[in-house]
Amino acid sequence: MTQILNQILASLNYNPQNPLLFNSSFFLFFFIVVLLLYPLLANHYRSRTWYLLLVSLFFYFKTSGLFVILLLITAAINFGFGHAIYYSKGRSAKRWWLFCSLIWNLGSLGYFKYTNFIIDTINQISGGSLPAMDIFLPIGISFFTFQTWSYTLDIYFGNLKPIHSFKDFAFFVSFFPQLVAGPIVRANYFIPQINKKLNLDKDAIARALVLIFAGLLKKGIIADYLSVNFVDRVFDNPTLFSGMENLFGVYAYALQIYCDFSGYSDIAIGLAALLGFDLPINFNSPYKAHSITDFWRRWHISLSTWLRDYLYIPLGGNRKGKVRTHLNLMTT
Fold first, then answer.
1. Contact (CB, 8 A) for 11 and 26
2. Is residue 188 in some structural domain?
3. Where are the alpha helices (DSSP H) in the chain?
4. Which DSSP symbol is given to 158?
5. What is the span of the domain harbouring residue 56?
6. What are the residues whose beta carbons fall under 8 Å from the beta carbon of 102, sequence distance 6 or more?
7. Cα angle vertex 288, ends 283, 293, to 5°?
8. Which stretches of the chain score pLDDT less than 70?
9. What is the pLDDT of residue 298?
């Protein structure tokens, strides 16, 4: 009995060598348990939100450990910045709070993702030997950072009013199906669904299951198989392979990254649908694109539209001449 109890407690702890992933057996067990209890709360909005919020925080703890605290701090800070921007009088005060939001979001994202890249670049340019920092990258930090940042930007641009319930905002930020691999969801898309009555029919369930199985096929079979059995071998030792094999390796890598990213997105959309939430499509057959522009519109749609709406257009888009347009495109 003690051994069983210890195994249960161990399964509830975070293991950095074995983080929780969609294609793991523990996630299957985890999600089945979530679904078994869900019908009891599905149409009780507050209870449902609390339940899914706690489930999402546990999921992220199993994925990234105590960085769940960073997730909550990021949510709380941007929740406060949103109110400060909205209720401030005068453009300069609103800009100040937006600047604070920018510093926090870009600062935290840049620290975890780019500190060692910057150190390595400095060493290469200067010939120095600055030691790399021991920084663990929290899974999904890009996604929840872009989501919280878009919230403050939407309020600043007058496209959104601040959310009054921190519970709802924290749920929006941490919703586990899309937390670690997208798609990036905006507040004005997701928040209205929180208090919506759950309405799942057989067709909706069937579509959700098809998406989940398609995602598992893409990620767990095609992408992982290509990576382990072909792509990694060719890229690790290209001189051991013929020119044709190297060419096949490039095409296989293109297929691998598509199946990897779009597979996770399909799983996320399907899982969310089983819980009664709609997530935006993230990939639309990008390799069928007829141009670079068309490819950009089809690949990681939630990211490309985020960059378009919050970076490219605010910088002026294509409205200020060719030179400025090219600069805006390069910045984006």
1. yes
2. yes
3. 2-12, 25-37, 45-64, 68-87, 91-126, 141-156, 166-174, 176-179, 187-194, 202-216, 224-226, 232-236, 243-274, 292-298, 301-307, 321-331
4. T
5. 21-198
6. 149
7. 75
8. 1-11, 312, 314-332
9. 93
Q: How many separate domains does the chain show?
A: 1
Q: What's residue 319's pLDDT?
A: 64
d(C-alpha 282, C-alpha 173), whole Å? 18
Q: Report whether 48 contacts 41 (CB < 8 A).
A: yes
Crossing angle of the two packed helices 243-274 and 202-216, in degrees rounded to 10: 150
**Residue 143, φ and ψ in degrees, nearest 5:** -70, -50
CA–CA dist 210, 162 (Å, integer): 36
How far apart are alpha carbons 198 and 193 in whole angstroms?
9
Q: Does 290 fall in a domain?
A: no
**What token pair was written down for 37?**
């209890």
For position 135, what pLDDT does the model report?
85
Residue 282 domain-assigned (yes or no): no
d(CA 151, CA 108): 17
Would you say residue 136 lies in a domain? yes
Q: One-letter amino acid identity for 166?
A: F
Query: Is residue 327 a contact partner of residue 311, using CB atoms and an 8 Å limit?
Result: no
